[in-house]
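Input record (one chain):
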Amino acid sequence: MIASLTGDLRHVDEDRIHLQVGPILYELLVPAADVDRLKDDVGLELTFHTLLYLQGDANGGNLEPRLIGFLRREDKKFFEKFITVKGIGPKKALKALALPTGEIAHAIESKDAKFLCALPEIGKRTAEQIVAELSGKVADFATSIPESSASVLGGGRRTPVEEDAIMALVALGERRLDAEQLLERVKLTSPAAKTTQALIGEMLRMRTVRA
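The corresponding structure, as predicted from the sequence alone:
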């Protein structure tokens, strides 16, 4: 079993990274919350705590091994608990973990299904299932949820103008969570952008810079 890998970060894709360990280039799937940070770390030596799982159809004999990499050992341990919830497999869990695991654990312990429901891949029923199965089991991972995270996940504070801007980006192929994050950045850096058109323009500009 490969418990961890230390090597040079060579490339970051939407949901995975390439890590050079000696002569071997490993592909690791990573949680959504780590992707943007890792883009700034290309070229650095990093350690990933790893977990192996088999992807595919066992009945059809078509199983492919996949390595998942976590920057923190605690994130790996939380992930192992998270995927015990009925209906949440490794791929779905990686997409859902779009915020730090400590904040998600806090929401679970607080039985905040609304917060969980706003995570990618997590609907109302799944959020309630997570609370039912994990509440009381992830307190060791929990940290407080900052206002910025609540805002990114909705928080009931979106104006119609802001919601229209988000939906416009989603219609152009942006993930909703990414569109919401772009909106938050625009609100901080361009407070004069008040109309839907102005917000969309600034969000598209930031998306181009990000790419």
